[in-house]
Amino acid sequence: MATISDPADGEFGVALAQAVRETHADDARSAFGAPADAAIAASAAVAEAARVLDAEMTWLADLIDASLRLYFGQPCDVADVTAIAAPSLDASSTYYAQIVRAHAGAFDERVTLALALAPHIRPQVLDPFFARNPNFERAFSEFGGAPRSAHTGFWPTLETAAFVVGGARILERRLHLTRLADPRHALRAARVLHLDVAEHAHNSAAAPLLIDALTLSRIVRGVESGPEYGSAFPARLLTTPLDWSDLVLQPAVRAEVDELRAWIEHRSTLLDTWQLSRHIKRGYRSLFYGPPGTGKTLTATLLGKSTGLDVYRIDLSLVVSKYIGETEKNLAHVFDEGERRDWILFFDEADALFGKRTATTSANDRYANQEVAYLLQRVEDFPGIVILASNLKGNIDEAFARRFQSMIYFPAPGPAERAALWRNAFERGPRLAADVDFERIAAEYEVTGGAITNVLRHAALATARRGDDAIRQADIVEGVRREFRKDGKTP
Fold first, then answer.
1. Which protein family is it in (predicted)?
2. Of 409, 427, 442, which one is at a domain's C-terminal end?
3. Which residue range(s) make up the domain with 144?
4. CA 116 vs CA 154, 186, 398, 429: distances in Å
5. Are residues 377 and 457 in the same domain?
6. Is residue 226, in this structure, part of any structural domain at all?
7. pLDDT confidence of 17, banded at 50, 70, 90?
8. Surface-to-core class of residue 268, CB atoms within 10 Å of its CB (0-12 exposed, 13-18 middle, 19+ buried)
9. Domain membership flag for residue 307
């Protein structure tokens, strides 16, 4: 395995590029016997990102050195740090270059962005700010900086940016930099740059500079990784290898789904080109209801797959908290990222969160109802697509149900739909024995698509255990009977 040289030696970009090329080539050879095209393309993208970021960090190091020399009256090659030219990004297609061109064209904006990246890319660039003021035996206040848990290096703030770009006009430029504290600033509105203002509400200049985690991933790796699933982000990306041809719905249901799909594909035309946003909200809320296993989740996933939108399924077991205020907090991150990245948010078994509110017999009941009301409002204000799935329409709070743009009922499949589901499920894999009759099975057993998938697993496993290469009718029937017994029914 290749190693990366010490980035302090000034050859960070070359070393990282070489390491990435060798690593990707090794991985590709081990998997396929020869370098794969995708691995080669990925290594080239990361190598270019490394080259750009190496040049940016070198530029930042020069700026910091010059700003310190000028501040302390030491010899310096420039009279003002603005004379130190930034690396050209005009010909670069990297994500970092795109961000700079779109949102950080001004000198101080680019310096601030580079400072925010430094703790993740080359933290030692910031070490000079650890110098102590000999007059007071403490750090220089004008350098800024803020402590961060589990980070031993210097973490820059807006105060740090003001010092680097300030020179002889530090106060003027410090005041100018305060515009970055405005959430409407391009770097903030695009959610590239954050200020951790939780403990610095009255002094934004002391707030740590933070890079959005997903943006950072795309900057350094060339791809945007999804958020890490957990209590802080209770949602998972839904994917499927299936396509619309694998989804069997009654014609009336399919027509309603097609209307939702059309909204996703043409909403920009309606709202922006035709300027209907004056009358129509950008958000769209749909309720999918019906028995389990009837295609609600698959439909939501296919809507995203066919329109190029990610679909995130919210895990309500992590969202609903017994602690006051935690439910809103757990969902806030999902809504924020969903709005920014135009995700489809899918709430499965939504009754747990959006069900009928309880009678207010205690203070906890009153707060719980207020919490649900807040969440309903957040869903209603979401400018993207929200899909709620429930087994029963009547379980959803009526006040919220009136705000759905569509309510689509997914009934249990009839004999014709069941036959199509059986054929779709068994079209690949082991061959079918001559006695397999899907028309007969569909007519005799009322099962859903989800149950048919379970039957497929059982029948294929039974065939493999038998050492056979053909699924028999008896394998399928036994699988159906197992499904009935699971539900406490008699086949």
1. Belongs to the AAA ATPase family.
2. 409
3. 7-221
4. 11, 15, 47, 52
5. no
6. no
7. very low
8. exposed
9. yes
Do both 105 and 216 map to the same domain?
Answer: yes
Q: The domain spanning residue 470 has which CATH number? A: 1.10.8.60
The CATH number assigned to the domain holding 285 equals 3.40.50.300
Instruction: Note whether 165 and 116 are same-domain residues.
Output: yes
Output the pLDDT for position 34.
42
Q: How far is CA 219 from the centre of its chain?
A: 15
Is 0.70 surpassed by the pTM of this model?
Answer: no
Q: What is the pLDDT of residues 253-275, one digit of tens each?
A: 999 999 999 999 999 999 999 99
Beta carbons of 50 and 14 less than 8 angstroms apart:
no
pLDDT digits (tens, 9 = 90+) for 389-398: 988 887 777 7
Q: Which two tokens stand for residue 164?
A: 């680097």
How do residues 137-149 score in pLDDT, each as one tens digit? 888 988 999 888 7
